[in-house]
């Protein structure tokens, strides 16, 4: 039987935390639920302590200095403190569904499989959160990939390099990974990234480890959409958005220089990094830099950054 450590970073999640934890505890496969409290300003710490007292599976940790370090550092601390052979993650405002580990029970019989992922659904918890989410993202009921995939197909799909449309990133809440695999490749979350650290981790994971899709036609977990979701607060192609995208692609770029990536993947990451680097420039300098970059490689105009974005807004 699988023995799984569920890692939940906790910051200002008092309204949702108990539902999240109680969705993970009942699974026979779940050995422990690790709460890493990140100096919340609400009553989250009190709830964490109560849950740890009430349920033997729940273990509570804080950063050594008791300060706020962000979700990436909290997940890394959770990995360090975990004792299960398998690791999963769960955001404190989300929850698992009863079929969460159905695919894993069979797929992990194959020793070459390092990780399994599935589809996540959406629950709108507030009307404002719903409006903000739908204004920025497609109103799909599932976040999932478009077809079953495994191995290097997943890495290339996440970069948008597959012949078929791969779909969106799979959500961290739906990933189950062998502890031995992430330790072997020294994989941890980039603590410099306050957002996108999950996407950064997943892409690197897909390169180093053998992943396989599990249940992708129905949700195995649910993402709660509410007023305080950080990702919905960022206006696409705004200076803040471009800055965070630049940090994300720069992280992948630094990593890629040390890996034996194929030419297409390496060039894709380089161009994305360069595009968002250019997005941070302004005025005449930006125009000249863009022209020079386009002459060097016209494909930069096909990156995720929209060069037609209004300079006045920047």
Question: How would you explain this protein's 3D organization?
Answer:
This protein has 2 domains: 4-233, Spore Coat Polysaccharide Biosynthesis Protein SpsA, Chain A, CATH 3.90.550; 239-313, no CATH class. It is α/β, with parallel strands linked by helices. It is globular, with a radius of gyration of 20 Å. 42% of the residues are buried. Mean pLDDT is 90; it is low at 308-314. The chain has helices at 17-24, 44-54, 70-81, 102-107, 127-136, 152-158, 179-184, 197-208, 239-256, 263-279, 283-296; strands at residues 4-10, 30-37, 58-62, 86-89, 95-96, 115-117, 119-124, 142-143, 176-178, 211-213, 219-225. The longest helix has 18 residues, at 239-256. The chain starts with a strand and ends in an 18-residue tail after the last helix. The strands form 2 sheets. A 7-stranded mixed β-sheet has the order 3-2-1-4-9-6-10, sandwiched between helices. It is built from 11 helices and 11 strands. α1 (17-24) links the parallel β1 and β2 (30-37). Residues 5-130 form the Glycosyltransferase 2-like domain. This is Glycosyltransferase family 2 protein. It holds the Pfam family Glycos_transf_2.
